[in-house]
Design a protein that fits this description.
The chain has about 130 residues and is mostly helical. It is about 45% helix and about 5% strand. The longest helix is centred in the first third of the chain and has 17 residues. The mean pLDDT is about 85.
Length: about 130
């Protein structure tokens, strides 16, 4: 999918030479990367689960953080520790890590609605692990 997006950027800007930087083209077009879009969709799903909009009992998968420090927020989760990649990169552990990083984007986690959550998430900086 990323290859299709990169090819589309070349066509939109009419820069077909292999010496052109596609990353700069995407920045010029202000297109959100597909990786960032997937991350935002995962966070929106966790928001829905946490607010009871999806019939998934979050207590079965994630536990609230045992303590709050200046590097976390009151809605942070404990990230399950595992050495197995298929668990480490599954939905709940991966999304919990990103959710806990939302501390650095103001008022996203406290949004009263999903629409406002998504809007604030898009306004904020990219979430980097």
């Amino acid at each position: 999918m990323e290859m299709v997006q990169r090819r589309a950027a070349r066509y939109v800007l009419h820069r077909y030479h292999n010496t052109s930087c596609v990353g700069k083209m995407l920045d010029t077009l202000q297109w959100t990367s597909l990786e960032e879009r997937r991350k935002q969709q995962r966070l929106a799903m966790l928001y829905k689960i946490q607010h009871g909009q999806v019939a998934v009992n979050i207590c079965d998968y994630l536990k609230p953080a045992s303590r709050i420090c200046r590097h976390s927020h009151e809605l942070a989760f404990q990230v399950p520790s595992t050495s197995v990649d298929y668990i480490k990169f599954s939905f709940f552990p991966r999304t919990a890590r990103d959710w806990n990083l939302l501390l650095y984007i103001s008022d996203v986690i406290k949004a009263p609605s999903l629409t406002l959550f998504r809007a604030r998430l898009q306004q904020g900086a990219p979430i980097e692990a």
